[in-house]
User: What shape does this take?
Amino acid sequence: MKLLAGKPGWTTKADVVVIGSGVAGLTTALNVRAAGLSVLLVTKAKVDEGSTKWAQGGIAAALGPGDTPDQHQLDTLVAGAGLCDLAAVKVLVTEGPEAVRKLIARGAVFDTSESGEISFTREGGHHRNRILHAGGDATGAEVSRALLEAIKGDSGIEVIEQALAIDALQDAQGQVCGVTLHVIGEGSRDGVGQVLSRAVVVATGGLGQVYSQTTNPSVSTGDGVALALRAGAEVADVEFIQFHPTVLWRDTAQGGQQPLISEAVRGEGAFLLNHKGERFMQKKHELADLAPRDIVAKEIFSQMRQWNIPHVWLDATGIKDFDLRFPTIFASCIANGIDPRKQLIPVAPASHYASGGVLVDLNGRTSVKGLYVCGESACTGAHGANRLASNSLLEGLVFGARIASDIAANLPEQSTPVEDQNEGFLLSPAIKLPLQLSMSEGAGVMRSEESLKETLATLTQLSTRTSSEPRIEAWEASNLYILAVAIVRGALERTESRGSHWRTDYPLTDPHWQKRVVQKYDLSGKWSVRFVEVTS
Assistant: This one.
């Protein structure tokens, strides 16, 4: 079932449409162009305003002295809690170093030591210093800058900014052959139009706005994943929403994007304290405050619930030159009345990363011909039940290049889209806030059958609040609804605790559940589920 939208008022063509301008989308676009194909790059806001820009952490790659892809693989598998696809992890860690070298060749500048060598740091879940940073805590911004510089001046890449991708166009055989999109404001074309193409790549990033508090920017409403679902693609592992453990706590009333306090701060020696001033991670994991994110987030949440407190504290006062080492974080803290050089930082978990997404193979192909998905929107299986810190930017680099290679080798001729005879559905923008609050309350860090069923009941009620006015806010709300239902359904199916999915009524990991929950949404709006065994 498609979204309700007006008839396309204009048409354009390109060999390949890439939706999203983060590391995944830009990498794919550049590699597609290297094959001599034309690209239309669609981005929802300005071209540099996606999640990549906000990535404070770094890029993990086995490039440092004594490090190997095998060691990186082991850390990734441990963090993934038995649900990683081994083949996908091997691709990530073995092709990762060369992908980073190519990024450097494209102009990305990473932090160096006094000797001039690239400086490697460590983050949660890593047993080696293998994280490359840029500008201390501005790695994503530097990666984005370098890739954007590479596409400038290339007449074979047309960029349409401030455009929301609405739905995929499909031919009589169901193959994707373009997209409909709505250009907002000062885009090069007004209103709803259609782009005919021989392949479509979804690289729209995350879906963090499905929760009331998130590190994701306001544009992260999961539009690409919802588009893929409506086109008939399968999603997997969507119940595994990673909550970043250390997000600057301001006030529960302040929703939307929250300031992230990067894991790298703990990598430099900061540590967590409860309201009594006690360190609580040392007895919970061998890596203490640098344990994998799910473990840290759960323990922080437990401390908050046990003592009925809204946050815990992060002590970074021992870090030398904090303002120089972490300028972005320092500015966020100061803006909120906290001097991290002298004061403890209040932190709490917030929605950060979707480890699951649209199910794809090792070349980014979905179950729908002509449709590829890359980056956070995809489920490659590389992250399993919990993404290892700083593997996300690497995934975009590695799988973006693989998608481009597959497209270059297998691109079909342009086919003709068939007009969807269904009227389409649309929900009221007013459902957004109650949906977010319900998801945070019942499907957040900790879930149970009771809380999930309550959330599903709320979502069902919200689905009756329809709209007949196609506009950005209504399309976003409708996308968030589809994704929220998928997350809750997946979490209800998985009767265990594993990785970033924690059921209080099923607190143990069950070997029976070493399998993917794969879901599909059909043309009538009905859901189906199947399970895929994982051997990692």
About this structure: The radius of gyration is 22 Å.
